[in-house]
Amino acid sequence: MTAILKAIRPLGFHWQTQDPFLFCAHHLDVFPEGKPDMSPLTGLNGRQIGQDFSGQDGWSMYHGSKVPGFPAHPHKGFETVTIVEEGLVDHSDSLGAAGRFGNGDTQWMTAGKGVMHSEMFPLLNEQNKNPLHLFQIWLNLPQAKKNVPAHFKMMWKEDIPVKIVKDEQGKTSHFKLIAGQFGALKALAPAPDSYAADPANEVAIWLISAEAGARFTLPEVGEGTNRSLFFYAGDHIETAGESISEEHSIDLAGGKALEIHNGNKTGYFLYLQGKPLGEKVVQHGPFVMNSNQEIQEAVYEFQRTQFGGWPWESHEHTHPKERGRFAIHADGREETK
What range(s) does the Pirin N-terminal domain occupy (predicted)? Predict the structure, then answer.
């Protein structure tokens, strides 16, 4: 293995990342047709309700008891970047913010000093299956930003820039820029207190697709900047003298550009890049701080305040079935798509 390739590992349910990222969860479910209440038409027999990660029949209920998803739970000290390529997510939080997003949208949420939110997957289609494909990336916050105000930002698919690159053979690769810059093309601004808000930190989050046989190049970055390429679907790739099959991740050293030669099928990748924080990480479930004492304080604060309380009638709150994509922010500002 060459110096630029630091590690190659098979992908699991939670993808191992490098500082400043904490991890990435990849959900790919083919949910059945929905009932009028947006629950699975096939019912829930044989599932451990509230704790179903079985993948039975190609899907899981996760922590949902009626509609699949993740009922109200807290976060503190980091950010979540939720990229939904297919399907929809109903968001509700303790700040009073809410939204329905998906089918190409991304939600960027800075937990900062604390927020509680739910993420449910409404099954709106009663005639056909309801596939869901999403990535949730946890991006750490530096110690100085652990207690910034929580913030909820939407990046609608219509606004997210995509860079199209052709190689010398005319084969095409697409780079969907959630964060960072590719050549002259810049992603939308991240949340204001994000580690990604400072270009000097070289944070990039890209979804890449490459047609069969295409060659594409990951650009040069600063020495010491961490890079990871998650090859989640395709055939194989060749890079730096190695042949790597699908469902593997590659940790890359900073510095030089790296060419990737895609194999015999369309290849799909998630790319994460950033200068490491280099700070101690102490994690207790959804709380990420810098010391055990800070974790104890975070847990106590949540027990005392519930990070603002829960303003919705259910911890598994879903929005009316007829609603389209929308976001309501804590200040009352509303967006619709």
Answer: 62-139
